[in-house]
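Worked example (supplementary).
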Amino acid sequence: MSGGILELKPERLTAVDFAEQAISLCGKSFRAHMSGALYWPSENALIVADLHLEKGSAFAARGQMLPPYDTRETLERLAKVIDHYGAETVIALGDSFHDTNAGDRMAAEDLETLAIMQDNCEWIWIAGNHDPSIPEKVCGHVLPELVASGITFRHEPMPGPVTHEIAGHLHPAAKVSLNGFSLRRPCFVGNGLRLILPAFGAFTGGLNILDDAFTPHLGNDGLMVWLLGQEGLYPVASRILRED
Amino acid sequence: MSNRTKSKPPVKIKAKPAPRKRSAKPAARRHDTQNDVPDLELLPPKFQTWFRNRDWTPRAHQTALIERVQANQSTLLIAPTGAGKTLAGFLPSLIDLSGRDDKSLKGAGLHTLYISPLKALAVDVARNLLTPIEEMALAIKTETRTGDTPQSRRTRQRIRPPHIMLTTPEQIALLLAHPDASFLFADLKTIILDELHALTGSKRGDLLSLDIAALRCFAPGLTTIGLSATVARPSELRAYLVAQNAPDTHHDLADLVITTGGAKPRVAVMELEEPVPWAGHSARYAMPAVYEQIRQHKLTLVFVNTRMQAELIFRDLWRINEKTLRIALHHGSLDVAQRRKVEAAMAAGKLDAVVATSTLDLGIDWGDVDLVVIVGAPKGASRLIQRIGRANHRLDEPSKALLVPGNRFELLECRAALDAANAGVNDVTLARTGGLDVLSQHIFGMACQAPFLPDAMFIEVRSATPYSALTRQTFDRVVEFVSTGGYALKSYDRFARLKTNDDGTLRLAHPKLAQIYRMNVGTIVDTPMIKIRVTSAKTRRPTQAKTTGTRPAFTGGRVLGEVDEHFVEQLKPGDTFAFAGQVLRFEGLRDTDAFVSRSNAPDPMIPSYTGGKFPLSTHLAERVRAMLADRTYWHHLPTQVVEWLDLQSQQSLIPSPHDVLVETFPRGKRHYLVAYPFEGRLAHQTLGMLLTRRLNRAKAQPLGFVANDYGLLIWTARDLSQMIADEDLDIADLFSEDMLGDDLDAWLAESHLMKRTFRNTAVISGLIERRHPGKEKSGRQITMSTDLIYDVLRKHDPGHILLEAAWADAAQGLLDIARLGKFLRRVQGHIKHQALSKVSPLSVPIFLEIGKEPVAHAASDVFLREAAEDLIREATEQQTT
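After joint prediction of all chains, the assembly is encoded as:
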């Protein structure tokens, strides 16, 4: 990058008003959290997408020894945000497990952590392409999709001008560029009628929302984008979006 | 690559009516030079005749090497450029091979490995080697083996190798990872390591040292020959060349043959009427004078420090090229075919000048260069000597070189480098502990070749000089890392990549792993590179592609070369930039290709150059400090620079060589702190980060900082001079050495530099694959995933060996912590603070860096907040959404 110096402005970092953002979808009110989870106050439900538990060990099984800590990291983050909102229902939007054997590789203590988290919650696993079935050792309802209060929750967003939908699968990320500085982060992306959640898992990468894959779902106009930062969630203008 | 004859100027090679005649390059020396001992007796008759026919006699160091190698004695030859080093290296092998009986062979017959740091150098040397072989009609087969060698030939070379193979370190690693390595290397007698000073002292050198240790096991009688330019501490190179048999008690050393002498180079700093600029590095002000010099010489090499700088200067020279001199461009981003064309034209005497980067630094002999122009700061005396050595590749004639500083500090640095070169001082440092990531890669490779016994492997590894201090415990941790990732949480044992045999040896768990190894070998982790492709205007799609959501459907297009991803990231469609000597218009990006079209714009819109790549060497920094403090020296400097320094001593002060000057002053609404440590950009950046943290804690409200090779500048919201006067801030405390403790840890943890270092370590060690069979991973994906891994690892396994390795790398690499530590120790009690009412003269060049050097660090949330506020502003202004 050339030009454009980014100045540290510590006095402006003290505010907490960016930790979550209100998102309205077909008249329903949600709160998007900087962790990448979506909270639905009226149902007291927390929605997360693409946890990809046991992704590290899936690579290890193929000979690439990624650290074995991604599951506990993801679960820790999830537990934290469930606690934060006191949510009583958790909806995991699919690809919660990296593959169908993930349960066999999962450490006993991680299974226990998950079980404890599930004790206090109604837990719904939406099936994803990575996890058409859920490990036997794990509790919770498994559904192909869920319709609640007029909103459809599914893993893969339907192509076409669908509305009233919340999905995952695409791992949206945005690259933004302003004043000569650019940054790429996971993001929530929507158009007011449907919303795609960022991947929540610790080892999940992102796909640029300007990629072709998003076009059938979100069209070309009126993109609404919220970027995940370290300390907040930031809505940005679509004109500062960049391709990779 | 196709011809570009139809494209508009500037073109790289222009035909001239009457090409000048050039003398043939002397492969050995004529009778009349010094050091010669007319001793042909040592040579077989064929060689004697050849020397006589050429009217040559072998040089003393050439015969010395023949004797050493015949006595099976590994040797380091230090000789200046142009002393016939390469021939000296090969003569023993040529002689031995000419008398060898092939019936005595135990293996494939490979006799000599020549290893160079550069592909191009290997190719060039192979070409030169053909002359003696053909003229003496020796039945010796030589071949190169590089990344460019076709797969079919590479496969054949493993079974039927040439007698002499010329190659690069990475290829050796690849050959060693094959089960047939023991057959291939069974007859190996000699390894010639060219430009050894450039091979050692890096991770590449670490890997090569391990490879040579492995080769010694296949061919126990192996002799190594190191060829090197002058270095400060030859003993480190001598140790590198031989096995360390008793690393706990002493270091074994190779023999040493030194050739000194040769004429002293004639080097000068270019003096012009025009004032040397305050800032910048590209020295564009001096181009008319450089052009005049090119006109007066046969072949001029114009060396610059970065590729983008090369582009700028190439364009500037062509803009004033009224005589249509044949000026070419050569840098590492250009397509190989394009580079070869320039090299060939140079060797054939068809060029007047070449603007080049370090790709031409090493001892390639492309033609009769009679002037070297060095633009920008040389950054190190050894580097300067190396570059100067490219002029007049003959020992007895003086090389001629001109230094062209880009700014005032660079002028001081040029003077210092010049004085160092004249005094014969070198500043190459080689002391280095081998990287653990490299060791991991090597152990994985050795497992691909054959099962190994850890005890024996430990001894073998310790025989490689960079690893002679390795402990068994660390070695075992590395082996564990290779096998299961070495995590505190032992959950991967069933996926282990190494399995134990009954005899205690470790074997590869699956043959597929060998394929993964071969696709990921090497220690050079470049910034991800993007190919520049020219697309024609017809196939170009309009640029609203982005907003309409469809991706531009670019296809085909000729490849001009590669640029690093960070550069492409700042471009938006329609932007123009200089590349391969032309102005190009950026059209769009598809996968790892950037599509461009030719632009008619006279000037590129995007200035590409962001600063020197090499930090100022410690030795030069000392010289610059001494020079500043010594008024009696100033008459060597141009008047305007002396006036500048005079002004500085009136308004502030000129620090003594042992002191560091710190100035504070207000300007506009802000307050500034400038320090001049002269410790190089990397150390200054680290210092800047740490000082900013401390100032923040002292409630000085730091807002940002910039650093260059000479100093750093921090700006704050509060009045620092006042704070110091009120004793709210203590300048000695601010610079106290303990900042390298907690502050460093805390900052490093979040630093993007540390993440970048970790990324290299993760890739080299094999934790992250660059390429997976059947998949090509783009650089960006690598960056993403190692950042995620770094965060998770730091939290859940802070003692992991890769974090340890990355920290060690950061300390000696990107962050230059070692140097910063020495600096902080040195200046305790020697800080001279000046509270000023306005900007000091000395600070002006650093001031001008503001806005040029991006301050990219943990401030991403500040950035995002600005982006969000930008949206809010937009929303409130439009009153629509």
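Two points are worth noting when inspecting this output. Chain B has four domains: 45-258, 266-422, 436-523+753-809, 618-751+815-862. Chain B touches chain A through 77 residues (CB under 8 Å).
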